[in-house]
């Protein structure tokens, strides 16, 4: 057995994120670049660091290569602790054959032995594909104070959006009396954020029961939480009032990125007391050419800008050649924009090359043009227009 930890975090990072289309064709959603310097998973890992949780199991599944190499030892997030650290936990073969993770609860169930190695009192279950800053230690204090079996982080959502979430009803103390997964007619707008703190003995018993139920989807929202509620366990709602986004669609991904360019952005990536860490610091300083124009944009390390960029986000190692103009766009790591190209309201994937004189998007259109990773686009290819996501 490893050194005992009070709380172990289990980070679910195996999601495909199919609604992001070309952006997740070759990588998992948590590995998608965001805000120039980061990848989406950076925010959950940084939350663990900022909450003094130093043992994190990262459960990977869909196209994990980039995610695995990016996380590495966890040193970038100060999570290479001698008594804890980051552990990549893909599905694995067993004496009975093994299988892919069948649901969120099944993913944790298949890693019971990992958790038992640390003999924790509590297990924090989080997702690797949400954008937010949160001190989990405050939620853990709330969990302890109420002697809870399960605490669910919740936030109020607009009533018209409530049917998209797990919705719960709680009394004045936070004790949960009802939970419904994506109800058609919600009777509350208190939505689960998919952030859970379990007392480990309760969770372990629930996972073992759920694994034996052949009709279960092995999902926390659909199965485990209703089961615990039906057994009379003590479930509490912890209200979160900060910024939280699930960038699950192209529109939400684009708009959330662009919010960072607002002077009063609701999501502050610059604050010191809740820093966001990343593993993208290996590039040289960015270079702005003598004739370049840079207006209201984020420009990361390794970029070389010789053309114009207006209200755009340049991830690390992006090159903008002479005469090119990029407007209202997001360029992911390693993207290259050729001479005299015109890019409007577009997302350009990692390592993609946009050739000379190419025009993508239109200043008169609200559609978002999306180019996937490792693509090469020449002007001659788009005379009939570019597909939009």
From TrEMBL:
Belongs to the bacterial/plant glucose-1-phosphate adenylyltransferase family. Its EC number is 2.7.7.27. The record marks 61, 100 as: Could play a key role in the communication between the regulatory and the substrate sites. This is Glucose-1-phosphate adenylyltransferase. Pathway: Glycan biosynthesis; glycogen biosynthesis. PANTHER family: GLUCOSE-1-PHOSPHATE ADENYLYLTRANSFERASE, GLUCOSE-1-PHOSPHATE ADENYLYLTRANSFERASE-RELATED. It catalyses: alpha-D-glucose 1-phosphate + ATP + H(+) = ADP-alpha-D-glucose + diphosphate. CDD domains: ADP_Glucose_PP, LbH_G1P_AT_C. Residues 293-363 form the Glucose-1-phosphate adenylyltransferase/Bifunctional protein GlmU-like C-terminal hexapeptide domain. InterPro entries: ADP-Glc_PPase (IPR011831), ADP_Glu_pyroP_CS (IPR005836), GlgC_bac (IPR023049), GlmU/GlgC-like_hexapep (IPR056818), NTP_transferase_dom (IPR005835), Nucleotide-diphossugar_trans (IPR029044), Trimer_LpxA-like_sf (IPR011004). SUPFAM superfamilies: Nucleotide-diphospho-sugar transferases, Trimeric LpxA-like enzymes. Keywords: ATP-binding, Carbohydrate metabolism, Glycogen biosynthesis, Glycogen metabolism, Nucleotide-binding, Nucleotidyltransferase, Transferase. Pfam families: Hexapep_GlmU, NTP_transferase. Involved in the biosynthesis of ADP-glucose, a building block required for the elongation reactions to produce glycogen. Catalyzes the reaction between ATP and alpha-D-glucose 1-phosphate (G1P) to produce pyrophosphate and ADP-Glc. Residues 9-261 form the Nucleotidyl transferase domain. One of its GO terms (biological process) is glycogen biosynthetic process. GO terms for molecular function: ATP binding; glucose-1-phosphate adenylyltransferase activity. It is an enzyme of class 2 (transferase). Homotetramer. Alpha-D-glucose 1-phosphate binds at residues 101, 166, 181-182, 192. NCBIfam families: glgC (TIGR02091), PRK05293.1 (NF003670). It comes from the Bacteria.
